[in-house]
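## tool: complex_structure
## caller: assistant
## args:
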Amino acid sequence: MKIRLEPARCTGHGRCYTLAPNVFDADDEGHCVVVAEEVPPAHEREARAAVINCPEDALEISGE
Amino acid sequence: MANPNLDTREVNMISAEFAAQPQPVYRELVTKCPFARQVVMGGPVLSRYEDVLWALRHPEIFSSEMEMHMALGTERPMIPQQIDPPAQTKYRKILDPRFSKKRMQEIAPAVRRHANELIDAFFERGSCEFDREFAVPLPCTAFLSLMGLPQSELPRFLRIKDMIIRPQTLMESPTMEGAQALRKEAGRQIYEFFGNVIDDRKRRPGTDMVSYLLETEIDGQRLTREEILDVSFLLILAGLDTVTATLGCNVAYLAANPAQRRRLVEKPESIAGAVEELLRWETPVTAVPRIVKQDVEIHGQRLVKGEMVTLLLGASNVDSAEFQDPERVDFERERNKHLAFGGGPHRCLGSHLARMELAVAMQVWHERIPDYRIEPGKTPRYSPGIREVQYLPLVWDRA
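## result:
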């Protein structure tokens, strides 16, 4: 699974790094940083939760 | 879909009934009347998730720059809430790091300690008035600590906040003029108080917000005294009232729904999900205003340049086009992109602070008092606008 972030859409809700701390982190402003673009199978579940819970629709799954 | 018969449907957002239970009205609006009108002033109201989100994301059409007659005792717009990008973006760049999730976690132990102290004061009594004894004082601790102010300032800030947000409750015979006068006086006191804080921090800088704002630059320029005052003003209004309201809404819901409360007590790991779901269902900040910058058509109706439109966040949060089974309160909800903190560039600056305070409070409360109910024969009282449960009498068994 691969994750794609559209940084211009992110406004720092922080749902991603709360729900999937193994896949996302925050920069100083609290905006999303993808730490594992290629998501290991063990973290796919949390990554998916983060993607479907982003209120700004800034994340997508770009390949499985 | 345009329906000319419904476009004049009026929403009474200031009634006590609406404040206590807005969800049935939301349902009507979302399904039958996505373009409604407010009873007071007649302004348009948007309620569908898709419309509200679209408006929140397009500040070039839906501006946050209110006319000054809408002002809450301020002489200038509050920063960054009442200004639009691109200026707003620059302020958020310096403010967001101060309100990041990581930073807010650092003050969680202090909030936990204070929550326990508050409960200590009434636990043995087996009853409390939740608003006055818990929901009001708790968020003030966090605010005062962020601002580097002593806790002894608490009563002063509570009074100022009420003078601005609900002046009617402080007047014997409420009038619009009286309310405006109280707001103006509160505004004057805030400017004066923070003016003194600025002078003090200039002499003796600390790690607090005002010291930070004094040494921060935007495009190589220090912030002016006015800018620092305009940020401080917002932090008082936004930081004190909203979490109080949310705590009240959450606990009132859980007191009235024992099965849900037991779930939370038995599975404390579901608290994070419960906080999100109750933000969605209760949406304590029911609506946000925007000023229309250019004529735009929606649902066959025209929004006219210059008019104020109400974005009904609470209604968007029960829209079945976005939320599966929206009437069900489900702490395990898989997909929950609620708009309780707004969205787009004005996403609530304090959302990480609020989430931390809510999670800590819910955890401590249910560890100490897992089994509580609304005092028999009594009815909680909700205030309109920001749904603070101003009267929430609870009882529990001490054994």
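## assistant note: Helices of chain A lie at 15-19, 44-52. The CA atoms of residues 18 and 26 of chain A lie 10 Å apart. Handing back to user.
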